[in-house]
Amino acid sequence: MQSKIPVNIVEVGPRDGLQNEKGVIPVDVKVELIEKLALAGCNNIEVGSFVSPKWVPQMAGTSEIISRTHRLPNVHYAVLVPNQKGLDGLLSVLNTYNSSSDSESVPPPSDEISIFTAATDAFTRANLNTSITESLAKLAPVARAALDKGLRVRGYVSVAIACPYTGQVDYKKVREVSKELLEMGCYEISLGDTVGRGTPSQVAEMLEEVKKDVPVERLAGHFHDTFGTAVANVFTALEHGVRTIDSSVGGLGGCPYSPGATGNVATEDILYALQGSKYSVTGTEYGKGTIDLDKITEIGWWISGQLGRESISRAGRAWRAKKIRDTEMAKDGEMRAKL
């Protein structure tokens, strides 16, 4: 029997999933979300962002969150940093950890940073107030400093398919930006359909262009589900050799700088869709070597409830409906047995 192809999931719910929320989310809720995800088998969780709370209020408190989270072995807890100031914030937390007794027995608050830019100047100006070239010049020393401290560095390229300000993106620019991030030392570059407008054929064309300069094993896919094509785009990326997919529990997400974009592809939907396929999702011992679909679905409903709404994951909604129906049928059977 042919062995299955391993697929990695980067769970971005605690960061990308929550950054666009309107209300204030308590630190306790964020910590609990991260801990639940780790116990479901997630081995790479993006837990927060060292950005200015003035611009992204929901990312306030990241230092406290990563310090308070009960961390499990063999799990990467990544944080997004936009600049040197953001990295300094993380290093301050790590310095406190390194000088404590916890450093001998507890995994560090974080061992990975994510840096980000985009494939159009219009988007980088809206998001970072710089051009692409300027953003890359500012990121290079941040990446170098992080690598020198022993941190893993992952890169994001936003609007890899379409830009909310300029429309269709030139895939050659996606390739050029990805190559620059690779040369900075990023172990992986995540290509984002930030608007969620991409189709499988567009994803295929974009990937084939980027692969001219960047090995496919160093690429990841990050798909929003605005037009309902995210799962199809995931399968297209996998067929073209990508082996890491970003997703968000409960389909949480959106982007404050991408008007109209809805949530990330739901982790539950990917886990369900990959069942019985030639792919297998990798995970920790807490998910028995994978990521537990039932646990993730429960978490999706739990965090959606904390936010005052229902889960938008299609698989999650179907799972919930089946669970309610099964409970009702069991009660009906008990009633009939008493008659």
From TrEMBL:
Top-level taxon of origin: Eukaryota
Keywords: Lyase, Metal-binding
An example Gene Ontology biological process: L-leucine catabolic process
GO molecular function term, any single one: metal ion binding
PROSITE patterns in the record: PYR_CT
EC number of this enzyme: 4.1.3.4
Reactions this protein catalyses: (3S)-3-hydroxy-3-methylglutaryl-CoA = acetoacetate + acetyl-CoA
CDD domains the UniProt entry points to: DRE_TIM_HMGL (cd07938)
Top EC category: lyase
Pathway(s) the chain acts in: Metabolic intermediate metabolism; (S)-3-hydroxy-3-methylglutaryl-CoA degradation; acetoacetate from (S)-3-hydroxy-3-methylglutaryl-CoA: step 1/1
Presence of the UniProt keyword Aminoacyl-tRNA synthetase in the record: no
InterPro entries: Aldolase_TIM (IPR013785), HMGL (IPR043594), PYR_CT (IPR000891)
Domain Pyruvate carboxyltransferase: 7-297
Family: Belongs to the HMG-CoA lyase family.
Identification of the protein by name: hydroxymethylglutaryl-CoA lyase
Source organism of the structure: Lentinula detonsa
